[in-house]
Write a structure and sequence with these properties.
- The protein is an alpha/beta fold.
- The chain folds into two domains: 5-210, Alpha-Beta Complex (Spore Coat Polysaccharide Biosynthesis Protein SpsA, Chain A), CATH 3.90.550.10; 214-308, no CATH class.
- It is built from eleven helices and ten strands.
- Strands 1, 2, 3, 4, 5, 6, 7, 8, 9 and 10 form a ten-stranded mixed sheet that branches.
- Helix 6 (178-189) packs parallel to helix 7 (216-234) and helix 8 crosses helix 11.
- It is globular, with a radius of gyration of 20 Å.
Length: 309
């Protein structure tokens, strides 16, 4: 049986999150969906829990693969999707009860991507990200994404399935930033992007989340993702027109990498970014607090430069 909307949910050792995730789907005001869970080689009870849900509700589809990472799990889920529209949900997050209805309703003839506001939930604390509602040509939206005005996460968004018929390049061996690489390709393939102010997605932060892991390897992978995205954009006919925004993107990825580890200024990735992309025009394009942070953290990284000399 096919459904108009497919929800792709990768899972790896997710037994403690599945109930909350599935419950947020069952209470949706829009009911005509399929949830495609991709078990990415889990070693806990994830497979059994998903199997039980699939037996209870035909809208729950469960597939398994060997452990290949989130990007490959999403790619596999997309290949199984029957819907005309696709959205992504991380298994440790949840949706507001009107999420699917709100985003689906926002599509019109030339809108290919709908972007919503979201909530960041940490314990009892909820921080709301409210976006200004508008509709933008994909090029204008892409520039704003590259400059950090809008997020490049795959979640809290909905897509026409046709966007995935283009060849989407997946990062190999990069665990950090792979969703940004995919999202930017989808934006490049789109016509118009509609932004909603409603916060319909709940990003739930846990202490054990991968986003909190500090690692020099993860910091390097973050920067590798930026180089991967630049290579994708080099193949577009408008690459020269968005080079200032690409410079800004590199500074944002550099900023993100420091949450993992502060690489020395002599590190080859950092050295390349600072030589090619550290420009006044880039600094002025990113949010002010990010610009100040990049300047300060780069000065600090100079202290570590002796590690690579």
């Amino acid at each position: 049986m096919s459904y108009p909307l497919s929800i792709i949910i990768p899972c790896y050792n997710s037994e403690q999150y599945i109930v909350s995730c599935v419950t947020s789907l069952f209470i949706q005001t829009y009911h005509d969906w399929e949830a495609i869970f991709v078990n990415d080689g889990s070693k806990d009870n994830t497979l059994n829990i998903l199997t039980n849900y699939a037996l209870q509700d035909q809208r729950i589809k469960m597939y398994s693969q060997s452990n290949q990472g989130t990007a490959k799990a999403r790619e596999y889920g997309i290949s199984k999707a029957t819907g005309d529209f696709i959205t992504f949900l991380d298994v440790d997050d949840t949706l507001q009860e009107n999420a699917l209805e709100q985003m689906l309703r926002a599509f019109d003839e030339d809108t290919d991507i709908v972007v919503s506001g979201f909530n960041i939930v940490k314990g009892q604390s909820v921080r709301r990200k409210i976006l200004h509602p508008c509709k933008l040509p994909s090029m204008d939206y892409l520039k704003k994404v590259l400059c950090g005005k809008y997020g490049w996460e795959l979640c809290a968004k909905m897509y026409r399935k046709e966007l995935f018929t283009t060849s989407i390049k997946i990062t190999q061996g990069i665990r950090i930033g792979e969703d940004a690489a995919v999202f930017i390709q989808l934006v490049c393939a789109s016509r118009q992007v509609k932004i909603l102010s409603e916060q319909v997605y709940n990003y739930i932060q846990y202490a054990q989340s991968a986003s909190h892991i500090r690692s020099e390897k993860y910091a390097e992978e973050t920067l590798q993702a930026a180089f991967f995205i630049e290579d994708i954009l080099k193949n577009t006919h408008y690459y020269q027109k968005i080079k200032p925004e690409i410079d800004a993107m590199f500074l944002l990825f550099y900023s993100n990498s420091t949450r993992r580890s502060i690489l020395g200024a002599a590190h080859p990735f950092v050295r390349t970014i600072m030589r090619k992309h550290f420009k006044f025009s880039a600094i002025t394009r990113i949010p002010l607090y990010k610009a100040i942070y990049v300047l300060l953290i780069y000065c600090l990284s100079l202290v570590k430069s002796s590690n690579y000399e």
